[in-house]
Amino acid sequence: MLRFIGYRVLELVPVLIGVSLCAFLLMRLVPGDITLSLLGPFATEETQKAIRAYYGLDRPLWTQYLRWLGNALTGNFGRSIGMQMAVADVLGVRVLNTVVLTFFSALFAIGIGALGGALAGIRRFSVFDRVSTVLALVVSSSPTFWFALLLLWIFSLQLHWFPSTGMYTLGHEGELLNLLWHVPLPAFSASLVSLAVIFRLTRSGLIDVTQTDYIRAARARGVPERRLLFRHAMRSVLPTLVNISGLQVGFIFGSALFAEVIFQWPGVGLLMYNAILARDVPVIQAVLLVISVVFVLANLISDLVTAALNPQARLHARSGDD
After folding, report:
1. Which residue stretches of the chain have pLDDT < 70?
2. Structure confidence at residue 155 (pLDDT)
3. How far apart are CA 286 and CA 289, in angstroms?
């Protein structure tokens, strides 16, 4: 098992290097001159050269990348062009806010998706199964921002149940109850696609397991249906559920941009959106790198938990150690 963990951790090194390289090069391929975003269209050539020298843009591309990567490994992502402050200072609070949103979104996605998928799989071809399956298909095929705007219009502008924007009410920063009042709409909006994916995989996995020979044999021996489903069938589906849930947590963290922009949630998604509008390259690179690292780490954790839950994976890891 230890060898399996070490192997999976070592696999992350080339992945993270590739991600950092893509994050760096993508911003260099964007057309236009970054110095014009700072100085305006009427800047002189001398001023532009001075700005390029200050940000190291006059150096070879590989030198810029190695310098940026070395600084990023120490937590130094440079200085924001638009806000004129260290990117790390801005990013720290924003990442925490997105983690809060991701946590509640994952609760919605995993809780409702797994429970709904299990009920649909148990009651196959029932009215609940047919309706919920169609809804899951519609949700997974629809854009996130459309559902976010729909929820905003219904529950905030029409019913006035929840606030329309922000993470806290002005003057109530840091209050847990105020946070819990603001979080449902953006969290549920960010969770919808992942909820539909978890629902469909849980349903299909449970249906496949209940049709296997050992489940049929247990049912023929008179094993109670409830014990058969929750002690045997769901246990077989659990490793797959954990694996896909880990992937969806990383997906939610990276795709929360739409919900954060619409509900003005002060996270990395909103920061990324404003940085793109301002052509703030250091902030964009830092956000891309952070999102990629979170996605990779979520995938790693889900793989390790899946291996711990799956006897075959444990057997394979144990044989590798021997």
Report:
1. 1-2, 4, 30-43, 55, 309-322
2. 92
3. 5
Residue 53, Cβ neighbours under 10 Å: how many? 11
Predicted local distance difference test score (pLDDT) of residue 276: 82
Q: Given this model, what pLDDT does residue 92 score?
A: 84
Percent of the chain whose pLDDT exceeds 70: 88
Radius of gyration from C-alpha coordinates of the chain: 24
Question: Tokens 């305006």 correspond to what residue?
Answer: 40
Domains of the chain: 16-73 (no CATH), 87-321 (1.10.3720.10)
Q: How far apart are CA 252 and CA 194, in angstroms?
A: 7
* Residue owning tokens 């402050």: 85
Q: How far is CA 176 from CA 100, 106, 169, in A?
A: 12, 18, 11
| Short-list 277, 282, 299, 266, CA closest to 95 | 266
* 3-state SS, one letter per residue, for the chain: CHHHHHHHHHHHHHHHHHHHHHHHHHHHHCCCCHHHHHHCCCCCHHHHHHHHHHCCCCCCHHHHHHHHHHHHHCCCCCECCCCCCEHHHHHHHHHHHHHHHHHHHHHHHHHHHHHHHHHHHHCCCCHHHHHHHHHHHHHHHCCHHHHHHHHHHHHHHHCCCCCCCCCCCCCCCCCHHHHHHHCHHHHHHHHHHHHHHHHHHHHHHHHHHHCCHHHHHHHHCCCCHHHHHHHHHHHHHHHHHHHHHHHHHHHHHHHCHHHHHHHCCCCHHHHHHHHHHHCCHHHHHHHHHHHHHHHHHHHHHHHHHHHHHCHHHHHHHHHHHC
The structure's pTM equals 0.80
